[in-house]
Amino acid sequence: MKKNIFTVLILALTVINVVLTAVLFFVMLPTFQKTNTLLTDVAAVLNLDLDADSKAGADAEVTMSDMDPIAVTWESQQTYNLKTDDSGKDHYAMMKGYTLYLNKNAEGFADVKERLTNDHAQIDGILSSVISKHTVSEATQDIIIKEALEEINKLLDSKIAVQLVLDGYVKQ
Q: How many structural domains compose the chain?
């Protein structure tokens, strides 16, 4: 009789353990996702490449002869409102156009080149959103170019965009 009571007790504790583990997993799942996002953001700030299948420094291996430019020049200068800083004054940035350099050796180059040559509105939108989210002191060309290239490559789902030149970029 004692063996049966111990067996039932052990079985009940095992079932409770499984149920509590399942509840804990589903309660902690959003925390795991936030941790993953945090680690990705930290890696981006530290300029680490988390893609296991990509080579380290793959962008550094692209030479000028491997780049194909797509130049966009607007009829009139574009003006972008910058985020308000502590001074409370309104600031803006202006740009005449841009040149996006694509890696000729990248997979899907011809298709991406044709799409971006015919319709560059999404790239224009990315530049607008990247510029607009910075204050006048933060909106340096280096930061804008770096963030815009990251967003463009995320949009294209590849690392085909290797360089970006902002034509006539000024801020005030």
A: 2
